C-alpha cells in the first residue's frame, strides 16, 4: 500500500509548485481518494496513475481548497474513458462507477450538472453516485475500512447535520488517520487515543511544533507523522519547522509535498 499526495497546500493564494490538498490510499492498484483540491487529477495522471481507478472518493468538507479539483477530476475521467485503450491509455471495463461521500452531496450534483451541461444526457461511461457523510463506518469492503468522525472546523447545520469530518482508515493491519481541517486535535481524540500507524495532520490552522509537543505530552501512540495542508508557518521555512517538530516529538516527522509517495 502507498499514500499519494496529489496536493499539500491549504487555502492560501496560489503558491509555486504547490496545489490544494488531496491525497489517496493506493491498495491493489486502486484508490481510496481523500479531498480533491485543484489539479489533483493532473498531478495523478502525470505521475502515470489512472484516475479512473477510484474505489471511493471522500470529501472532508466543502471548502474550495478541498473541492476545487472535482470538476477537472470528473472531466479527466470522461476524457480517459473516450481514449480507453487508445494512445497508450489502459483499457478498463466501462462504465466506470464510483461513489463520492461528501457532507454536501448538492455540491457534487452541481458539478455533475456542469459536466454534462452541453450534453442531452449523462455520459453512459461514467456513473458518479453521491452519499452524505455521516459519523461511523462509511465503507468496509475490498480490505479497506473508512470511518468518519465529526470535527469542529465548520459548525453543524441548524438541523444538526455535520459539515466537517476527519477519517480513520484501516487496511492490511495498518491504521491511518486523516485529520481534514480541525479546530483542535481534541476533535481527533476518539481516534488518536487508540493510536495509529500514520497520521496525516493539517498545518493550515495550527503550529506543527506545538502539535508535536501536545501529542508527546498526551502519550499518543503515533507511528509516523505526515504534515499536510500547509499554512503560513510551514510555508515560510519547512526545514526549520521540521527541526522544531523533531525536537518536540523526539523523532523525525514528514512534511508533505506534491507528488510525494509514502510506503505503508
How is this structure best described in words?
The chain has 264 residues and is of the alpha/beta class. It is 25% helix and 30% strand. The strands form 2 sheets. It has a 7-stranded mixed beta sheet. Helix 3 crosses helix 4 and helix 6 packs parallel to helix 8.
How many domains make up the coordinates? Answer: 1
- Largest beta sheet, briefly? 7 strands, mixed
Measured between the Cα atoms of the first and last residue, the distance is 5 Å
CATH level-1 class: Alpha Beta
Summarize the structure.
With 264 residues, this protein is of the alpha/beta class. It contains 8 helices and 14 strands. 25% of the residues lie in helices and 30% in strands.
For the structure shown, list the relevant keywords.
alpha/beta, 8 helices, 14 strands, seven-stranded mixed beta sheet, 264 residues, Metallo-beta-lactamase, Chain A, globular, 30% strand
Chain-wise SSE layout:
Elements: E1 2-7, E2 22-27, E3 30-34, H1 40-46, E4 54-58, H2 64-67, H3 70-82, E5 96-102, H4 105-115, E6 126-132, E7 136-141, E8 144-150, E9 165-171, E10 174-178, H5 189-192, E11 196-202, H6 208-217, E12 222-228, H7 232-236, H8 238-249, E13 254-255, E14 261-263
Parallel strand pairs: 3-4, 4-5, 5-6, 10-11, 11-12, 12-13
Antiparallel strand pairs: 1-2, 1-14, 2-3, 7-8, 8-9, 9-10
Helix pairs in contact: 3-4, 6-8
Amino acid at each position: 500500500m502507498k499514500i499519494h499526495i496529489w496536493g499539500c497546500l491549504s487555502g492560501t493564494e496560489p503558491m509555486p509548485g504547490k496545489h490544494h490538498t488531496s491525497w489517496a490510499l493506493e491498495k491493489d492498484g486502486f484508490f481510496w481518494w481523500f479531498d480533491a483540491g485543484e489539479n489533483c487529477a493532473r498531478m495523478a495522471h502525470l505521475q502515470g496513475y489512472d484516475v479512473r481507478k477510484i474505489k471511493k472518493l471522500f470529501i472532508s468538507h466543502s471548502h474550495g481548497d478541498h473541492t476545487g479539483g472535482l470538476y477537472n477530476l470528473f472531466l479527466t475521467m470522461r476524457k480517459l474513458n473516450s481514449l480507453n485503450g487508445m494512445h497508450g491509455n489502459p483499457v478498463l471495463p466501462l462504465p466506470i462507477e464510483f461513489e463520492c461521500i461528501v457532507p454536501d452531496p448538492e455540491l457534487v450534483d452541481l458539478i455533475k450538472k456542469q459536466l454534462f451541461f452541453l450534453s442531452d444526457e449523462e455520459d453512459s461511461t461514467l456513473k458518479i453516485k453521491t452519499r452524505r457523510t455521516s459519523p461511523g463506518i462509511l465503507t468496509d469492503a475490498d480490505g479497506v475500512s473508512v470511518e468518519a468522525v465529526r470535527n469542529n472546523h465548520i459548525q453543524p447545520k441548524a438541523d444538526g447535520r455535520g459539515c466537517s469530518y476527519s477519517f480513520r482508515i484501516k487496511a492490511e493491519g495498518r491504521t491511518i488517520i486523516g485529520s481534514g481541517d480541525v479546530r483542535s486535535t481534541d476533535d481527533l481524540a476518539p481516534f488518536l487515543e487508540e493510536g495509529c500507524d500514520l497520521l496525516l495532520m493539517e498545518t493550515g490552522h495550527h503550529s506543527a511544533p506545538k502539535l508535536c509537543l501536545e501529542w508527546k505530552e498526551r502519550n499518543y501512540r503515533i507511528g509516523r507523522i505526515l504534515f499536510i495542508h500547509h499554512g503560513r508557518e510551514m510555508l515560510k521555512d519547512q526545514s526549520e519547522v521540521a527541526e522544531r517538530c523533531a525536537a518536540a516529538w523526539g523523532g523525525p516527522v514528514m512534511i508533505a509535498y506534491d507528488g510525494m509517495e509514502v510506503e505503508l
